[in-house]
Amino acid sequence: MLLTASLPCLIVILNWLWPLSLPLALKIPLALLMLGASQYLYWSKLSSGSVFVPEFPRPLIILFNWAFGAILFLALLQIVLDLGALVDALMRWHFVAIPDSVRLAAAGIAGMLAAIAVAGAIRVPPVRDVTVTIPGLPPAFEGYRLLQLTDLHISRLFPTRWTQAVVDRANAAGADLILVTGDFIDGSVAMRRADIAPLKNLHAPDGVFAIPGNHEYFFDYSEWMQHLSGLGITMLLNAHTVLTRNSTHLVLAGVTDLSARAHGQTGPDLEAALAGRPTNAPVVLMDHQPRTAQNAADQGVALQLSGHTHGGMLPGLARMVARGNNGFVSGRYSVGAMTLYVSNGTGLWPGFALRLFCPPEITRFCLRAGPAQS
Where is the Calcineurin-like phosphoesterase domain (predicted)? Predict the structure, then answer.
């Protein structure tokens, strides 16, 4: 991971910085600053013992993400410039130098893109409305509203005031039910106790339910499950609850994360989660990772809500993220008769806090009746 993070920096130093007509006394400090910024994850590990938890002041985390983003974008732009110069050289049949002015303009564009990407990542997201047709939805649940939060990654980057702002916006959305589909935090309970405290103020008429994401397993999973329950959040760990209106039912189920077994915990078990549910009642499933959606569709789930992918974050990167998640990365998908919705996430991991054309979201779903399944 650290070597991968260094590659864009090496491209920038060798292909962008070194050819500039600057004195060596300036190039060397600039190169060292870039190398330092590229090792953000290493500094994060020194700060907390884990690459997943940068325990720096928030402005420094923002600066690190901006610097890494600027290096990444500049590396990509420099590759484009180098390819353009190569094509021009082949056409002219002599060496073509890239002017300093063009290199500096590329650096300015990269810095601006990085600033936009960081600003887009750390803002309090708006509420996004999505209407979903549920086959056989009972009339009593027509227009039922679910609110999804996911991938909060509460941390030094997403601290108490950000969490409180998200809670205020979620409560104001007027949903019947609030769901959190994992990755609440980055850090231990001791580290995040104050930052996560506003979640106790989440409220909806039919309650607040949640599942763990993979990041909960990176720390003390059992302690986190206990702490989240203490905040008034009902954790559905391979379990379901039945919502009842006018003697008709809607089933809400949740499974643990695919990473659970690697950490000595109980892995996802959809059969156990659905065992004993009312027959013919539509099922809404919370599953942090979307990659096994076909299994849920095969077991008759009507709607699956997932996160984990952060929507891909950047153009191009989204394709790589999709490949690791069976093609599911952002938005609505039809998987057989089931609707899968993959949220872009409410927050994201502070180790890579960049978003372009992939806004964060608080998602409000309105359920509408559709033809009953045969």
Answer: 145-311
